[in-house]
Design brief:
203 residues, 6-stranded mixed beta sheet, two-stranded antiparallel ribbon, binds copper (II) ion, alpha/beta, 33% helix, 26% strand, 5 helices, globular, Glutaredoxin
């Protein structure tokens, strides 16, 4: 009887979403086709074409290069994810993408400098016009509120800090271009993400 019940529930879950993988992140509302990112440009100013990564698992996060705390934390976790996956010989099977929430400061030149400075050469950084970015944020449920600049004192001198409230999360896209799950918050559970990416690569 137990067996029949289990089979029944597996069947139901396969029928309802067509996917049977057990993932560690938040899967509610997914799978959903990834929105068109073709309005965005990379650090060279080249229009982005997501089709070049067809067949790879994509890890997408959102932030801005002058973010004081949240974004550097997420990016350092993602660097760890990358190192672990590469260590398992999965280099080339996945791609990490950072979409800016700051169309004003994050020009292609700025994101290019940031990538080099942070040694994140293998990551894709995307920017674009405010209108095009806004469409992407909305489609991906990324909340963005530009709070302008805040002057802060550092000892005797003052510094202007860019303040943008934004959603901190990681969106995981499968090889067919469907969002399958998200990890919410800035503390990315590295091992869980690595496990899920491996499952999706092998799917
Ligand atoms: Cu941030």
């Amino acid at each position: 009887m137990k067996y029949i019940v289990t089979v029944f529930f597996i069947l139901i879950s396969v029928i309802t979403n067509g996917y049977s993988l057990e993932l560690k992140g938040s899967t509610k509302g997914f799978p959903v086709k990834l929105t068109d990112l073709s309005g965005l440009i990379d650090e060279n100013g080249t229009p982005f074409d997501v089709n070049q990564f067809k067949g790879k698992v994509l890890l997408i996060t959102y932030g801005y290069t002058t973010c004081p705390h949240v974004c550097p934390t997420i990016l350092s976790f993602l660097k760890e994810v990358e190192e672990k996956l590469n260590g398992k010989g999965l280099n080339g099977k996945f791609k990490i993408i950072f979409i800016t929430v700051d169309p004003i400061e994050d020009t292609p030149e700025k994101i290019s400098e940031y990538k080099k400075f942070s040694q994140l050469d293998s990551f894709i950084f995307l920017t674009g016009s405010k209108d095009n970015l806004k469409k992407v944020w909305e489609a991906l449920n990324v909340y963005v509120e530009d709070k302008g600049y805040k002057v802060m004192k550092h000892g005797s001198h003052e510094m202007k800090h860019r303040m943008i409230d934004h959603t901190a999360k990681l969106t995981v896209v499968d090889k067919k271009g469907y969002i399958r799950e998200e990890f919410l918050g800035m503390y990315i559970p590295v091992n869980d993400v690595v496990e899920d990416v491996i499952k999706l690569i092998n799917e």
